[in-house]
Amino acid sequence: MHTLDSYQPADLLEQCRAAKPDKSNERFCLELFRRAIVEKSQGCWAMLYQQYLKLVYRWTIEFAKSNNGIGNVSVEEMAQDAFTQFWRSYS
To answer: Is 41 in contact with 9 (CB distance < 8 Å)?
Structure first.
């Protein structure tokens, strides 16, 4: 078994996406977060964006109660803003 240190960001993402009944894949997802926040890895930030964009987008639509956004702000902008604020808070 490889140590997490041997995984590149794209490999971590692939393992993170591999759903397993025992949730043993979560360590790969958590490693993406750790490297993004602690090591300030741009590659890991990019992988987190890929992994969680659809989820954040779906939450945004639920919050806005519309696929069109709120006022002049589109759902896409709100989802992007959520990622931007997260990045600012942890960088």
So the answer is: yes
pLDDT digits (tens, 9 = 90+) for 10-33: 999 999 999 788 877 899 999 999
Please state, as a whole number, how many other Cβ atoms lie within 10 Å of the Cβ of residue 59: 14
Q: Is residue 16 within 8 Å of residue 33, measured between CB atoms?
A: no
Rounded-to-integer distance, Cα 32 and Cα 52, Å: 12
63 sits in which H/E element:
helix 42-64
Amino acid identity of residue 4, one-letter, is: L
What's the token pair of residue 20? 């397993």
Q: How many CA atoms lie within 13 A of 57 on its CB side?
A: 10
